[in-house]
Write a structure and sequence with these properties.
By secondary structure, this protein is mainly α. It is built from 15 helices and no strands. The relative contact order is 0.12.
Length: about 400
């Protein structure tokens, strides 16, 4: 069962990192302009990130196995649509479908793991889960390069079909049926839809600002609508009996600060991945396979950073270690800013990968640990603990 669930989580991670390497190829094939290329990643990650909390809530109320299988079916079907996409718009729509499916299956799978295992077995299962998630980025860039170079970029999506079918059959046999009937009250669909629409409008404004102009009607209109929507989301969540986000928790410095730092680190790191993939293939003329191999050092650096974070915290404390992590990340980004059209991989790209990769993963690891610590230990979060018995997955995702 653990192998099946971790495999499902792996393909969710792969479809972020693997597509990065294939971007120049699919851009040429579908005629996607450089200004719109990021939407191949954004449509997936926007729906995935925005709906994770709803996915966790759905697993609690509708049944973990039901939600997992529904998410897997949607993710696999959308993968087929992405592989067959004739236009950029069709690809974006398919990627959005993948994001929705991933947001359903990922928290449901984690919930099954946390409830199926107990004691030391649960700790080992969660360690395997975390290792698979961490290795997915490294495997993804290499697999994306191999499939794109040897077959075609569409193979990145086709490979999800047999994997999804095997996982579905295995889960039907290995995971027991949900004992309770589905309960739809308390899903907070309204809050989820407002959040998605608001973030989508804001990202659309930011993504097109360089072409339309920062003072254009499009940028100001969609940007203002996005900000107004987020304000509406806050107001709705404050008035909802069972909100997706308990906003009071963000007032705690460990929770709110950890979330803000993870957002910052992830935004910069994923942006760097996107730009570097294009630079390696369009400027340095690397093949997709070569680009995939050239991304592996950052995976090694991130693994070293994640491993070293715990040791540094025990010896020097959270604040000093976090300062060091972001200093390394800033140094890596400074090195990246010096890359020129006449640069080379060894002299220009590799240094920032090694330095920034270690820094970002140390920071993300500490920020994530701070969120967990705040929710489980700090007095400010104590009011959430009674809910652990009725909705363990929802509390975990929060």
């Amino acid at each position: 069962m653990l192998i099946l669930l971790c495999t499902a989580q792996l393909i969710v991670i792969l479809d972020i990192s693997a597509v990065n390497v294939a971007l120049p190829s699919l851009s040429t094939d579908l005629g996607i302009g450089r200004g719109d290329l990021e939407w191949t990643i954004t449509t997936y990650s926007l729906l995935f990130g925005s709906l994770l909390l709803l996915g966790g809530r759905a697993a609690d109320l509708l049944g973990r196995r039901r939600v997992f299988l529904a998410g897997l079916a949607l993710f696999t079907g959308a993968s087929a649509a992405a592989a067959l996409a004739p236009t950029a718009a069709a690809l974006y729509a398919a990627r959005a479908g993948q994001g929705i499916g991933a947001a359903l299956l990922s928290p449901a799978a984690l919930s099954i793991v946390t409830t199926a295992f107990t004691g030391a077995a649960r700790a080992r299962a969660l360690a395997v889960w975390g290792a698979v998630a961490g290795a997915g980025a490294a495997i993804g860039v290499l697999l994306g390069g191999v499939l794109t170079d040897v077959i075609d970029w569409r193979a990145i999506f086709y490979v999800n079909l047999p994997i999804g079918a095997v996982v579905a059959v295995g889960v039907l046999r290995a995971v027991r049926r949900d004992p309770a009937p589905p309960r739809f009250a308390g899903l907070d669909l309204r809050g989820a839809l407002v959040a998605i629409a608001s973030l989508g409008a804001l990202l659309y404004a930011l993504g097109g600002a360089s072409d339309a102009g920062w003072g254009s009607a499009r940028t100001l209109g969609f940007g203002g609508a996005g900000l107004a929507g987020l304000a509406l989301f806050v107001a709705l969540e404050r008035r909802t009996a069972r909100p997706l986000v308990r906003l009071g928790a963000l007032a705690d410095r460990a929770v709110g600060g950890g979330a803000a730092l993870m957002l910052l680190a992830s935004a910069v790191l994923f942006g760097a991945f996107l730009l570097t993939s294009i630079y390696l293939q369009e400027v340095l003329r690397a093949t997709p396979l070569e680009a995939g191999l050239e991304f592996l050092p950052i995976a090694v650096a991130t693994a070293v950073g994640a491993h070293g974070a715990g040791h540094l915290v025990r010896r020097h404390g959270v604040r000093a270690t976090m300062a060091l992590a972001f200093a390394l990340a800033a140094t890596g980004m400074a090195l990246m800013s010096t890359v020129a059209p006449s640069g080379s991989y060894l002299a220009d790209v590799l240094p920032w990968m090694l330095v920034a990769g270690a820094g970002f993963l140390v920071a993300a690891g500490i920020a994530g640990a701070g969120l967990v610590l705040a929710l489980l230990v700090l007095p400010a979060a104590g009011r959430f603990l009674p809910r652990l018995r009725e909705a363990p997955q929802a509390v975990t995702m929060h």
